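Re: the pair you flagged

First of the two:
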Amino acid sequence: MADLSIEINGLRFPNPFVLGSGPPGTNARVIKRSFELGWGGIVCKTLSLDHEKVKNTVPRYGKLTDPDNKKKVIGFQNIELISDRPFDLWLEELAECKDAYPDNVLIASIMEECEKDLWVEIVERTQETGVDALELNLSCPHGLPERAMGAAMGQDPEMVEMVTGWATSASKIPVWAKMTPNVTDPTLSAEAAIRGGADGISAINTILCTIGINLKTLRPMPTVEGYTVPGGYSGKAVMPIALRHIMEICRACPGVHVSGMGGVETAEDAAQFILLGSSTVQICTGAMLNGYEMISDLCQGLETFLEQHEFAGVADMVGLSLPYFSTHADLVERQLQAKREKAGETQRDDMWRGDIAKETDSLVTD
């Protein structure tokens, strides 16, 4: 049987499937349940030092469905903020989860304002719970921009490098920086995070969007007291964009662990991220829509894929498709070269047939 396990930053994941930060990892109960089901790792919902500044609304989700099948969700928008649960309660629950599942990989997602003391404090206090790694949320696309948090921070490479440096200087465990897709060049902030000492990159977070307009009320959705704000777009529809970001980041940061995400719902989806350089694959919206139990199909499907291609394990396929990206000019030249070679072969074949014909004629004449 193919080996689904993979080792990253000294951490052994039993399989590359990680439950991404968000509603699926919102408290100790669901984290424990996810470990029991077999997820390779879990990133808890993002926490900050002062939960009282976090005010969520209802409703806060919007769906884009297939016109021919209203039950099939194509895209998903949320305007949910980071965790509104007390930081001290989170510390207790993280420690509780690690005590109960010491061999499972638990990653804490953290976010703070652009102040060194705050980042040092949240790193030091969170790692004391025994979590295996930290994921810096530098990429939430909505909410708290007035505090320069999330994507407002992640869109500025200088700020990314500075904040990552603060975090890594205080951390005794691996640090991953989570990237925003709401930029023109995804490599700039990723490279800045690496310069700041990040051990890995997570990408992508959700894409800033407006899910649609309610054509009965003429109000944008999700509608809160008649109004809304742009939110984070996720789900199957974002996968092609996510794959492009992963490809760009993996080419720009060779040798650095990348945890890819964005629209993954099947083992085949995950395989594409791995082939482009992701060592682990995170799933959040997919678990919300399909249930945590999907991990069983993901593992079985990936195992089948590995065996079909005769890979001994996941590590054997990481980045295999990456070298086949080039430039348009190179594609044109490759096609011209292929035509020249084909023409040359045709010419050689014609000459060979001509020689045979002449030799045959000679024999007949003789």
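Second of the two:
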Amino acid sequence: MSSNSGRVFTRRIFIKSTAMQAAAMATGAHLAWGKDAKTPGRLLAGAATTDITPPLGVSLSGPISKRGPSKRIITPLNTRALVLDNGCERIAFVVCDSTIIYDDVIKKAQRMVREQTGLPPERISISATHSHTVPRVGLLKSEVDQRYYDLVSRKIAEAVSIAVRNLVPAKVGWGAGSKPEYPYCRRKLIEPGSRINPFGETTDRAWMGGWGQGNDRPTSPVDPQVGVLSLRHTDGRPMAVLASYSIHYVPGDTRGDVTADYFGHFADRLAVLMNGDKADPPFVGMMANSNSGDTNGPGGGYKMQEKVGAALAEEVFRVCREIEYHDRVLLAVCHSDLELGVRRPDKKRIAWAKSVNAGTYKGKKHGWTTVYADQTLQLAEFPPTIPVRLQAFRIGELGITTNPCEMYASTALKIRAASPLKPCFNIELANGYRGYLPPPEQHKLGGYTTWPATSSYLEIDAEPKIRRELLRLLAQVKYL
């Protein structure tokens, strides 16, 4: 591991570029960032939605799961954006109906957002919902997939630009609800020697359980919180809601189908509950994935996706009716790029992978042995360290953290308990993709989400380093 593992680069970014100011003025953007954050002006907010439904034929495959091309559209996919400005700071949240959005697509979208609005990447969270029936944006190189990835970048920038144009005086409130009946820990304890992993080993003590069936020995707690950030027009009309929840997805789909999962149904149902489905500009409901690396939801396919989305919308609607709204609040964001080590394979593991691909491997096999052999050789080409973009936002007394990993519930619960801002919620798979984030004690148990691959490659101590850094950033935005 490199000696600079864990190195942190942190700074507050203020807009000083004349060129950026000119670009922002051309789009009507307000550029007063860098004023005294303790004297906020009247809050402005705007929201927007753009369509990112893929054409048929775009791949739904991931690094491990090979789902093939899209064949049928069950529900449309969208990018949803929310922008807040208090005259001192401007921040934006974007949530996309994508499984993963890789760095190249994120960076392209960020460049376009900056060109069109003047808003720098440090002030934007661009996250994926992690529905498994949608594309992994940026993974593949075929022409049809690349065209779609370019579309997603453009639509992210378009959503933010429209949200900026929609900025109007607004009120904001925050709170937290709870939906404990859906999450369950998808990793269960097993007896050593009882299962063969993809590498031909029988040392794992944890295994991915069934879809809520027989998982009576969970390895970790779950997180039932529903985080809520709500925006209203000054006359009380609903404008937008950013919520977060922690179940991976709702399984039971048909191969080749495209659906936004419970995230899309949440947005549609909340708009109806808010009487905002016919508003102008339309009400925007956003459901981000909070921390579901080891958490799944109930099976049941499309009907259960709709049921979960509707139940979450009802809970968020309840919270929105009870919280207090403000027209002047502090806004702040801090970020850091944490340099972390990569678990690259050693010579023995590389030799194993080559023997599997050559057909000379004679050991025990798992259904994913060939997949993990390919993953091993891909991981061998990774750099020894990699930057991990982390953010902490403050909106009044609400804290929001973002990270590009699939975080375990236990990590989020620890951050929330120690956060100086209350309530606090996390948005995962934001601003890139860095795979699963198992705590060190979960690495010792093994099992899927810890097996080294392009879906799980950060150093074993990545989780405590990321957790400490997010808490440091929360403290920083609290006391700016």
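The mean pLDDT is 91.

-B.
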